[in-house]
Amino acid sequence: MEHAKPSSLGDGVAAIRTSGALTLSARPIRPEDEPLLRRLFERISPDDLHFRFFGGMRHIDHARLAGMIDVDYERSITFLAFDETDRPVGTVMVAGDRRGRDAEIAVSVDSDLKGLGIGWSLLHHGIDWARKKGFRRVFSIEEIENVGTIGLEREAGFVQRRSAEDPTQTIMSLDLT
């Protein structure tokens, strides 16, 4: 599957056309975005929240949201994506290690909008950012039951290996060099 390249709209905002013919705008998260991020996570199913945060939570607390918002924009970033009505529809977080080599990537999408190419487009937006920052590899940690995300990442070129620490998890990685 091909993904649409984002085009810059200034101020770090990118226009992204998904395979489902949606036009999104994605921009780096700002400190004042906590209510928007909270609203997005309220539209994510309990199963999807479980896969994203490895727990049975129904609501994302302030501390977890603050961690997604408090980024340095050089080594880590969270992009917030909006539909044409400015409703938050997804997010991609990229958190790089101190050496600037590896970066973890995680995508969340409004559960009602899955299957429209939002996750695919945000995944590639995060990969493009990591590549521009000079990271050598992006990776994600997935529960082995999260077959949808694992399939998406495989389709994007990620290689899968079992976690040595937890047999219920798998490590997905993509070489950026």
Brief rundown of the structure:
The chain is of the alpha+beta class and 177 residues long. Helix content is 28%, strand content 32%. Strand 6 (102-109), helix 4 and strand 7 (137-143) form a beta-alpha-beta unit.
Beta content comes to 25-35%
Q: Kindly report the CATH topology.
A: Aminopeptidase
Ranges where pLDDT stays below 50 over 5 or more residues in a row are: 1-10
CATH architecture: 3-Layer(aba) Sandwich
Q: What characterizes the major β-sheet?
A: 9 strands, mixed
Topology, number of strands: 9
The CATH class is Alpha Beta
Q: What level of helicity do the residues show?
A: 25-40%
| Order of SSEs | EEEHHHEEEHEHEE
Q: Count up the helices.
A: 5
State Rg.
Answer: 15 Å
How would you summarize the topology of this molecule?
Layout: E1 7-10, E2 13-17, E3 23-28, H1 34-42, H2 46-53, H3 62-69, E4 76-82, E5 88-96, E6 102-109, H4 118-132, E7 137-143, H5 147-155, E8 159-162, E9 169-175
Parallel strand pairs: 6-7
Antiparallel strand pairs: 1-2, 2-3, 3-4, 4-5, 5-6, 7-9, 8-9
Could you please describe the fold and organization of this structure?
This protein is of the alpha+beta class and 177 residues long. Helix content is 28%, strand content 32%. The chain has helices at residues 34-42, 46-53, 62-69, 118-132, 147-155, and strands at 7-10, 13-17, 23-28, 76-82, 88-96, 102-109, 137-143, 159-162, 169-175. Strands 1-2-3-4-5-6-7-9-8 form a 9-stranded mixed β-sheet, with helices on both faces. Strand 2 and strand 3 (23-28) form a beta hairpin. The longest helix has 15 residues, at 118-132. The relative contact order is 0.15.
